[in-house]
Amino acid sequence: MPDVTRDTLVSTLEEIALLLELKGENPFKTRAYRKGAEIVQNFDGDIVSRAAKDDLKDIKGIGDALQQKLHELASTGTLEYHQNLRAEFPSTLFELFEVQGLGPKKIKALYDQLGISSVAELKDACQGEEIAKLAGFGAKTVDKILAAIANREKFADRFRLGDVAPLAEVLLERLRDHPKVSRSAIAGSYRRSKETLHDLDFLVATNEGAELTKFFATFPEVHEVIVHGDTKASIRLENGLQCDLRAVSNHHFPFALQYFTGSKEHNVELRSLALKKGLSLNEYDFTGDGEMPEVNEEADIYKALGLEWVAPELRENRGEIEAAREGTLPKLVELSHLCGTFHNHTTASDGQNTLQEMAEAAQDHGLQYLGIADHSKSSVQANGLSEERLTEQLDTIATLNESFDGFALIAGSEVDILKDGSLDFEDELLSKLDYCVASVHNVFNLPEKEMTARLIRAMENEYVTMLGHVTGRLLLRRDPYALNMEKIIDCAAETRTVIELNCSPRRLDMDWRWWHRARDKGVLTSINPDAHATEQLQYLAFGARLARKGWLRPEDVVNCLPLAKVQEWLALPKSKR
Ligand code: DGT
Ligand code: CA
Ligand code: CA
Ligand code: ZN
Asked: Are residues 183 and 232 in the same domain?
């Protein structure tokens, strides 16, 4: 099956409408596509599979031509008519579609009246006078557009950790397997588990630097060689990602690893600490007048400076050096500590695998329990469950659970938090569930005060076990909605509501910068993959990395509890958890 969602159908129809408009086509034709988009958006049922099966005949407002196009799109993943239409315009025009807050009307005005067909031209126009002459473009609009462009530039050359990790590990393995390599690592922001990265910093210990840089520069994934020397090479891969390689001697390796892991701020602190001890620390060695400490591995560098070894995730100069000096660094959670996980979807809503398949996959991952949390009825776009369907699912889970040995499905729901903070299901139904994840899936644009109050009201509900993807951010795509995080964290502590660490690589939400504070207030987390398919249980690994980055220990993570304990914990009233 091609990867087509309701969103694909809707945005394709909308784009066709806009392109026809830009071409100056007859307004009736344009309107038919726009109307079609609206009908698809609001259709109550699985419109994507109906389109794939060419079963759209009885849907009002979708004529023959539209039916045929939706079928082609849903069954093949592309639409020739759409592709041909796009080809009639400069390819840079489509950049405008990605600028937040720039709708079809504005794009048409810009294109028709000022001939603007790229973001660069738009930026120039915003900085000049001409744009204010257009109807509907006040000073406020121009500011918003400039802010959106700045946002886009900020994201332009960054990649999400989860998107690059599989390839990064393949390349590392290839270097590691080279016979002339004794030690290897990926340093930089990747080793620190930053949620997004600019480039990858590979490091090898070898006596044959020139051979290794040549090996690296001729990897089949290389799109372009940026730098190529005897000890250093930089390449750009097909996907745009830059990768640096540094080849050093085995003696220099621990120093280079420490230096290139960063962060810069952490290193600055470390160097000044070294100076106080009469040592000068650089990327290759300690130097100075006194006796030099013996260094075989990275931990020896920290030891020489009177510090415990600092886990790379913590190296952001946020108190880790002081803690390393005092011996109070946290014993961080590890992936292997997770006994189970919550917040997963099945085919009942918008997942790709059945309950049975998800349960088997969880057991293959060595988990003792898997929390199910399909969408609730208001999430129509995700085929949310009605009260009846959720009740049926509870029965199915109870039956399946009888067939497992040392494993259990935990029955829950991902309940929509409605605009006013009330929940999509009544308490009576929620009380029958083992747990509940409450999430915001619509009306993202409330002012901070209202959005904060909305989440607080949800947390005050006795049956809300945890908040799902608390800020709604999509990394490099959508900013978090306006939220007072201090208040959210305080309320979570008071109401004993867990805040999930959503480990979908697109989210990694709540942001790692808030966890240390939350944990100190007694807030618990649950590391949740939000899996919509069996293979997405692997996202747990990213969650564990980000939890470590947030200074979390096993005792801060509720899914480190084994099955029997987690069941006891869930059975307690919230105030006792
Ligand atoms: P990014 O932007 O995601 O690639 O982040 P990093 O941290 O990987 O940054 P990168 O690749 O520019 O450099 C890797 C590490 O090398 C960095 O974390 C610390 C170290 N480093 C690079 N430039 C400097 C510098 O000018 N001063 C110091 N002290 N360290 C540096
Ligand atoms: Ca880097
Ligand atoms: Ca770099
Ligand atoms: Zn969700």
From this structure: yes
Task: Pick the atom of ligand 1 nearest to 271's CA.
Answer: 29
Beta strands in 404-520 (DSSP E): 408-411, 414-416, 437-439, 466-467, 498-502
Q: What is the pLDDT of residue 95?
A: 84
Structural domain tally of the chain? 5
Please identify, by atom number, the ligand 1 atom nearest to the C-alpha of residue 259.
Answer: 20
pLDDT, one tens digit per residue, over 323-379 is: 999 999 999 999 999 999 999 999 999 999 999 999 999 999 999 999 999 999 999
The letter for the amino acid at 416 is: D
Backbone angles phi, psi at 2, to 5 degrees: -65, 155
Convert the pLDDT of each residue in 519-543 to its tens digit: 999 999 999 999 999 999 999 999 9
d(C-alpha 43, C-alpha 245), whole Å: 52
Q: Is the CB of 268 under 6 A from ligand 1?
A: yes
pTM, two decimal places: 0.79
Residues 406, 539, single domain; the answer is yes
Best residue among 155, 244, 260, 476 to mutate for probing ligand 1, ranked by most atoms within 8 Å of CB: 260
Same domain, 417 and 531: yes
With a 6 Å cutoff on the Cβ, whether 162 touches ligand 1 is no
**Domain span at residue 561?**
335-576
Q: pLDDT by residue (tens digit) across 48-85?
A: 989 999 999 888 889 999 999 999 999 998 999 999 99
Same domain? 427 vs 505: yes
Mutate to test the pocket of ligand 1, among 163, 186, 189, 203 (most ligand atoms within 8 A of CB): 189
Tell me the CATH number at 191: 3.30.460.10
Do residues 196 and 297 both lie within one domain? no
DSSP bridge partners of 439: 416
Distance 466 CA to ligand 4 centre (A): 12
Pair 477, 546 in one domain? yes
Are 170 and 145 members of one domain?
no
What is the CA(147)–ligand 3 centre distance, in A?
A: 27
SS3 281: strand
Amino acid at the residue 146: L
